[in-house]
Amino acid sequence: MKRRTIVAGLGVAGAAAAAGLYRFTDLFVKHYPPTPYDDVLAVIDREQASRLGRAALRTMPDFDVAKTAARLRAAGGISGAAAQDVEQERMTEADGWVVPQSVALIAALAAKFQP
Amino acid sequence: MSAYIDARTLPGGTVLSPDIAIVGGGPAGISLALALADTKLNVLLLESGGRDFDSNIQSLYAGAASGVPYAALDAGRLRFLGGGTNHWGGWCRPMDEIDFEARDWIAHSGWPFPRKALEPYFPRAQTLVEAGAWTYDGSGDAIASAKGPVLPLGKGGVYTSWFQFSKMRGDVLPTQFGKRYEENLRRAAHVTPLLHANVTAIRLAPDASRVDHLDVATLNASGGIGTRLTVKPRVTVLACGGMENVRLLLASNDVMKPGLGNQNGLVGRFFADNPIPRDVATLVSFSGALAPFYASNLAMDNGAILRATFAPTAEFRRARKLAGSLSTVEQPVTLDETGTAAVVTTAIALGVDASRARAYSLGCGIELKPDPDRRLTLTGERDALGLPRLKLHMTLSDEDFARFRLTLAELGRQLLASKAGMLRINCSTREEWLKNMDWGHHHLGTTRMHVDPKQGVVNADGQVHGVPNLYIAGSGVFPSYSASNPTMNLVALTLRLGDHLKKVAA
Ligand SMILES: Cc1cc2nc3c(=O)[nH]c(=O)nc-3n(C[C@H](O)[C@H](O)[C@H](O)COP(=O)(O)OP(=O)(O)OC[C@H]3O[C@@H](n4cnc5c(N)ncnc54)[C@H](O)[C@@H]3O)c2cc1C
């Protein structure tokens, strides 16, 4: 077997192993394909958020992904945004849950990118 | 010492002439009799029933209904000594100042006097209902916090308020007025309780200027008319409850054709109760189980039994044009997937640990807006004593629920503001509100109090407009209602009437 073929073969096997490991760790930490909004979504539990997000999206027919991400970034992340919303009475309901608007938005964003 | 008399043992045609006849031996009638016991006035307390439940007597209460489903008229009342306190829950809370105000966003609201006029009577009323040391909102937080943490709420329109509970001696809960005050009435020299005495008509003098006499009848063993008696009092006080007072007034129509006191068509209108829809919301406490005084009634170190409830502040009610409401934790519940997701996501966003979060259902008591079409009228059907039966037409407006929903949303926001928890509102549609609907069995508003005879059946003293020697006691005179349970309040109002009667009848 040519050396090049062996190296290539190892590479494929390595990739396959890495992929396997990746899938295996998926059981513990879900891995998502990259999105332009990973910085925004990084802080939350995306799987849980997307469940809430599906409910939130039902009341947001005009949901705009880019605008939402921009708003959350401008607020300096979800923690600041959520606290400000509560303080300034910017609340919304998702499946009846009374949540800060920013929480509904980040949840909806997560739902949009939930594979 | 005055003995209880069984009206069935009196000879037919007996005429009794007390100074004051109190018709009805429920908490209103008994409180009034006790209030007058220290005077020289001869008081006759006429009670339809005996000391215990009797199905023949109870069936006098049966009636018809239309409109929104409501409790059967003979199910939400008890017709024997002690009246409704033979099956009440003992929940007590004084009405708020704002409940007495004319609120421009609630048509027909407002009492002819402020809460201040009732306040001198609250301590005695609290003693009579045996609800322990006056604690409520003044010191509820401080006293309860010895038993566990009070859930912090962020700044806003809802605050933690407190119910107290009636507790009869020993382990009998709550106070049953008939049994509890039997000895007190027996010891009152000038008070005569007359049992099995059904007032069947209030007879006016021919010029309608005053009550001349009361027709009284007993039921015989086979459920028909037994003995007929006459009572000729100087002053009569109706204390038969918010439904039965109406029936007696409307049926007493020989002189005033539309019914006694009904010259303006108001008797029986404006009926109200406190709807108690269950499971209206899910409250999540992030830090784990709530203190025990949320989901149950808990005895405190000062002897009072307290339970926390969530109430809108007066400012919030004014700003958002809300009615009163009291939301109370019911029982632990399990969250569904979306609920868990809401808690996890919100907790992360707020930076709190919700790993021990616990969820509870909330129930509530709501104040309805006065509605003249929610109404009691007479039917053509008659009971065993020949009295026409009542029919209730019940209404509930979507606006009442929509108003209350705003309070729940504010509570949800304040829980987030304090990072203590969060809330789901479980009801949006009318069907959802009605699905788990219960009632307080608080019979309010049917003989409303107003200084203007065109807007009320009784004046600010409880006197029927135009009939100087006829008064009404009980929550039927409440012109607007509050979310607080009525009994402690109606007892206070009755004690105020007692003071008035001491002056006018002495
Ligand atoms: C299940 C239930 C739970 C409740 N829980 C609470 C609670 O937790 N807190 C609270 O504040 N309230 C509660 N209530 C309401 C409470 O019972 C009433 O507010 C209270 O009993 C009203 O008092 P009352 O004296 O005006 O009328 P009633 O208690 O109805 O008494 C009227 C009396 O008049 C008598 N009577 C009727 N007709 C005649 C007649 N023609 N002649 C002579 N006598 C007559 C009756 O036999 C009765 O004894 C509850 C009610 C029910 C049904």
Model description:
With 115 residues, chain A is mostly helical. Chain A has two domains: 1-31; 33-112, no CATH class. Helix content of chain A is 63%, strand content 7%. Chain A has helices at 3-26, 38-41, 46-57, 65-74, 78-87, 101-112, and strands at residues 91-94, 97-100. In chain A, strands 1-2 form a two-stranded antiparallel sheet. In chain A, strand 1 and strand 2 (97-100) form a beta hairpin. In chain A, helix 3 (46-57) crosses helix 6 (101-112). The longest helix of chain A has 24 residues, at 3-26. Chain A is globular and about 35 Å long. Mean pLDDT of chain A is 83; it is low at 5-13. Chain B has 506 residues and is α/β, with parallel strands linked by helices. Chain B has two domains: 1-131 and 173-273 and 373-395 and 442-506, FAD/NAD(P)-binding domain (3-Layer(bba) Sandwich), CATH 3.50.50.60; 133-165 and 275-366 and 397-439, no CATH class. Chain B is 25% helix and 24% strand. Chain B contains 14 helices and 23 strands. Chain B has a six-stranded parallel sheet with strand order 1-8-4-3-12-23. A four-stranded mixed sheet of chain B has the order 2-11-10-9. In chain B, strands 6-7-16-15 form a four-stranded antiparallel sheet. In chain B, a hairpin with a 6-residue loop joins strand 9 (198-204) and strand 10 (211-219). In chain B, helix 4 (122-128) packs across helix 14. Chain B is elongated, with a radius of gyration of 24 Å. The model of chain B has no long low-confidence stretch (mean pLDDT 96). The chains are: A mainly alpha (115), B alpha/beta (506). The interface between A and B is medium-sized, with 31 and 26 residues. The complex binds flavin-adenine dinucleotide. Flavin-adenine dinucleotide binds at residues 23-29, 46-49, 76-77, 79-80, 83-85, 87-91, 198-199, 239-241, 244, 248, 441-442, 474-475, 485-487, 490 of chain B. Residues 23-29, 46-49, 76-77, 79-80, 83-85, 87-91, 198-199, 239-241, 244, 248, 441-442, 474-475, 485-487, 490 of chain B line the site of flavin-adenine dinucleotide.
